[in-house]
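pipeline/complex-builder :: batch 7 item 3
reading input block
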Amino acid sequence: MPVDKNVLEKVLARVQKPARYLGNEWNTCLKDHQQATLKMAFAFPDLYEVGMSNQGLKILYESVNSRPEILMERTFAPAADMEGLMRENDLPLFALESQEPLTSFDVIGFSLQYELSYTNVLNMLDMAGLALYSDRRSEKDPLVIGGGPCVFNPEPLAPFFDLFVLGEAEEFLPDLLAEIAALKAENHCKKELLIKLSVFEGVYVPSLYKPLYREGFLCGMEKLDPRAPDTIRKKYVPDLDRAPYPTAPIVPFIQTVHDRAVIELFRGCGRGCRFCQAGYIFRPVRRRSSENIVKTAKDLVTGTGYEEISLSSLSSADYPQLDVLISAVDNALSAGRVKCSLPSLRLDSYSVKLAEQVHHGRRSNLTFAPEAATERLRMVIKKNISEEEIFNALSDAVEAGWQGFKLYFMIGLPTEENEDVEAILTLCRRIRQYFKKEAKRSLNISVSVSTFVPKAHTPFQWEPQLALPKVIERQQLLRRGFRNMSGIDYSWHEAEGSLLEAVFARGDRTLAHLLERAWQRGCRFDGWSEHFSFERWQNAFQDLELDPGSYAYRRFEYDDYLPWDHLDCGVSKEIFIREHREALNGDLPEGAVDGTHSL
Amino acid sequence: MERIRFSFARKKPLAYISHLDIMRLFLRALRRSALPVAYSQGYNPHPRLTLALPLPLGVTAAEELGEIVFAEVVGPEKFINILSLQLPGALELLHAVSADPEQPALAAKVCAARYRVYFSRGSDVTGNEKLLEQALEYLMAKEEIILEKKSKKKKTININVRPYIYEAVIIKKEDKPLELRLLLKAGSSGGVSPFFVIEQLTSVIGSALFNDHDWHVHREKLYADHNGTLQPLSERM
């Protein structure tokens, strides 16, 4: 079904933020479809403003489109109003660059960043006019592939996808696409093509593996073709300085969530916080050289015109001599009056100094993530900072003139008791009192509390999520406490959303039908509180006689077969077990930065 | 220091972005171009770029005006040549002049704007002219047309915008769907949007005409007051 341009124009005149669907932004790459040996549509299962803030999209767009013979275009989840009008007017999901329907591409690649975007994946497949299940799509249909952090446990999505890429794809994806083009030219059927692709490191073809169950519990994966590997190893980029990186990424017409240029200082993180999946799946730590960073910063300004450059990573202050680097970047950018920003700062005095260095007097709020409020619990999660260090860092920040803080905490962490939650209140109260005396002015303190979600490939992967009623009880405890504390702005994540996140983060293929059912019942944009309906999800669970608790609350044993055991993130199970035991025994870990993974 | 005033056209796809988006777009294009933009003094310096009158979302424009101050002399020709390379096709620089820095800002001079509201090709609105004409007549004969506005203190204030509608006529050309031409008060001392006028017409003739057919708003010109008469602002840059 082609896209009728006249109809599309009329539809665009009637939707909110039509610029989401326009394409043609600065630095867009528009290639001739006739000349391309392979056409891929990068599909981001969330709104344009979210997708265009994703650095992975920009990196892959660059890496694929820098090859002349292949092309990549973009598509995003249409908002509800656009979806309605598109369906009403028989407009299929299209790619922004060419406005060609998704079905005219050879490959549709979904970016899987977040479990609560899964219903959007299904909706986008449906809006493209494709069957949801991979075995019901025809030989002519595009291959549906997926990448991103959720691929470290993609099982709930497995039946919908032809292939997943595990790990970092910027060097590998162009080769994979070229290989697909070559195999297609040889007229292999889809099944044979997928078997041939499965031998590449990082490629996971879910249809080649069959989950085995014993007494209702997963007990293994049966390989359905001898050529497929037993375990799939993740792909990673050995050297960031040599990997493709966009210095002229697309500059959207409308404001996006992260509306700035980004330089990745390093990938991976040596801290090893036990709840943090990114800290494990992006190992080893790889640093971009400071020469490369300064040059990239300059090129980014010339290429995009952005007024701000973010020096990003999972824990930026861990970059050796970051202060020296910031000065060098600042010097390089001063002519264009471009500002630097530093996300992900640690709670220590060095980080406060760095923040001061990049902010040049524009002091608003500083964001920190202590995650837990007691030293005991911080030890359990390996976020090893003492209360004294917290106070030192905060008082340095106040002295430097910052107006306030945003503090992130989690509840529902393993071993957490009510008193750990009450400690969040105590800590915030102490911070407030301390500064009333010390700073002699009021500070804006905002506290954001999320619910812990146990994730695959972390030391806490065996841990159950705290049960929903308990989570709500602890949220209420905080709400009551903060209500009596003036000057603190408290916000929290919807507990039901976090429950679903845990279900899909730890679940297996039995969840695919549930996803389909939830989508049929109208679930979309589940990560957006204005769209999320737990009731619809509960109904979907009931329809299929499934219990969310059996996925989210199950404590796995060390010898249980985990749904992601056939996927190798590069960190052995022994390490996860050791870390998990250490966490639960409360043993002192040997220093915050894990020696084997330091920078 | 040099103050450059310029005119530009905004075409279809970019009609869908807001005034702030357009500002950001210009500023990023300027930074890519490496032209020496001047910044304001003070705690939070910002680039000295202003547009004469914000464009409503969805409206295309034939001749918008803006002005920018450079730290060094650039010259109007170089300004157009260099900046054009950094602008999308739908935003076209038309003309630029070097202006006296002491003159009042363009934004302070705008006092009216001319719009065309036209139905798109292929939409059959024949037979509606009479209806629309009568509605216009009725509207223009009114003493008061009240626009409710929220003040800064969130109080509702009523403004009589009837005097703001300087001109409203229907144009019917051979083999073209009918067109509405509006000359409306605009600028810092108050104004009225073409969409409000259409809303008022709809309240007279019912929603069918404007709801069932595709129509578009195009801003043709901005005007300044010159000794009591309206003169195109572009001629007085």
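note: The interface with chain B takes residues 10, 12-13, 17-19, 22, 24-26, 251, 253-255, 301-307, 335-338, 361-362 of chain A (CB under 8 Å).
queue -> next item
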